[in-house]
Amino acid sequence: MTVVLDLDETLVCAYSRSKVPADLLYSNATSFEVSYVLGNGRMSDVVVFPRPGVQAFLESLATFAELIVFTAGHAGYAQPVIDMLDPDSRLFAAKLYRPETVRTHMQDYVKDLRRVGRCLSRTVLVDNDPFSGLLQPCNVVPANPFYGDPSDRQLMHNLLPFLRGLSVLSDTATAPREKSAFLPRFRAGLK
């Protein structure tokens, strides 16, 4: 199975240095800073908060799935963040950025999973924005948006078990009867 992972508000959240919420600023939340060049040539600095458990989640997920990052973010920002998540470049088989997204009549920055080049019946997109998977809605696994809550446990407690269950199915996109055994427990964890 191939698991395509969104970056912002799914695996991490980022705030410009001057706009970090006060509760996060004074919390024990892990963070790191990224500086990158904007399209206009100016520098931007952001503070990035990894979602709790993200390293363990990625390591565990990589034992039974191929991992790909697909972000609507620009490479200048996203690449350093991905490097922090995967410093040895061994977890992610591919990285796709904003230029690989498509515009539809309903939404900009849609992630067309055909661009990943994998079998769609064995590919899922984990994303906090349901419109990101507009072109292949049956392939989307929803994630609650992450804005820095240090008590968040969704990756390890909800998403990992659900994805492990999907990994044994022959068709992850069109097997609703098989998926249904996992959905009630998974959806309950999203609330």
From TrEMBL:
Q: Which parts form a coiled-coil structure per UniProt?
A: none
The record, for InterPro entries, names: Dullard_phosphatase, FCP1_dom, HAD-like_sf, HAD_sf, TIM50
| Domain FCP1 homology as annotated: residue spans | 1-166
Instruction: Give the top-rank taxon of the lineage listed in the UniProt record for this protein.
Output: Eukaryota
Checking SMART domains in the record gives: CPDc
Which NCBIfam families does the entry mention? HIF-SF_euk
- The entry's protein name is FCP1 homology domain-containing protein
- Species this protein is from: Coccomyxa subellipsoidea
Source species taxonomy: Eukaryota, Viridiplantae, Chlorophyta, core chlorophytes, Trebouxiophyceae
